[in-house]
TrEMBL record:
Boundaries of every VOC domain copy: 4-134
InterPro entries: Glyas_Bleomycin-R_OHBP_Dase, Glyas_Fos-R_dOase_dom, VOC_core
Pfam families linked to this entry: Glyoxalase
Lineage: Bacteria, Pseudomonadati, Pseudomonadota, Gammaproteobacteria, Cellvibrionales
Official protein name in the record: Glyoxalase
Length: 146
């Protein structure tokens, strides 16, 4: 499957904090930047964090939670679908620094056509991220029978 890279721009409360989280902890390569925004290479996609100091230092983002396979999935959220080996490596890296997962690394829809590994966590500004993996991405990602 060949995909065109997507571009996603999100708000963050502090550029240095976002650099530490996305660049340092998640180890995403940094691209162009100014004092008000930074580009990151999110597994081949362009993630841009834009400063919004109005988000403040404290407080939770009010997010909708939808039930999916018995778990509360935060909406909105974003992330990347990885192969299983890369997902495993990322989940171990994230577990070493994340204070609390929204949804711990797990396998959802076990034994079903849509079986997938997934994890959810928040960045320091409260943006929800999901990283998931399928055993056969090309077959399972858009399988309507699942």
């Amino acid at each position: 499957m060949t995909l065109t890279p997507f571009h996603l721009a999100i708000q963050v409360r502090d550029i240095a904090e976002a650099r530490d989280f996305y660049g340092g902890k998640l180890q995403l390569p940094e691209g162009r930047s100014t004092q008000a925004w930074v580009d990151f290479n999110l597994f081949g996609h362009q993630l841009v964090v834009h400063l919004n100091p109005a988000l403040g230092r404290h407080g939770k983002v009010n997010q909708l939670v939808n039930p999916v396979d018995g778990q509360g999935v935060p909406v909105p959220h974003f992330g990347v679908v990885l192969n299983l080996a890369d997902w495993e490596e990322l989940s171990q890296r994230v577990a070493a620094f994340i204070g609390e997962f929204v949804i711990e690394p797990c396998v959802r829809f076990k034994g079903q056509p849509a079986e997938q590994a997934t994890m959810f966590f928040l960045d320091p500004s409260g943006n929800a991220l999901e990283f998931k993996a399928f055993a056969d991405i090309d077959r399972q990602l858009f399988d309507v029978s699942a």
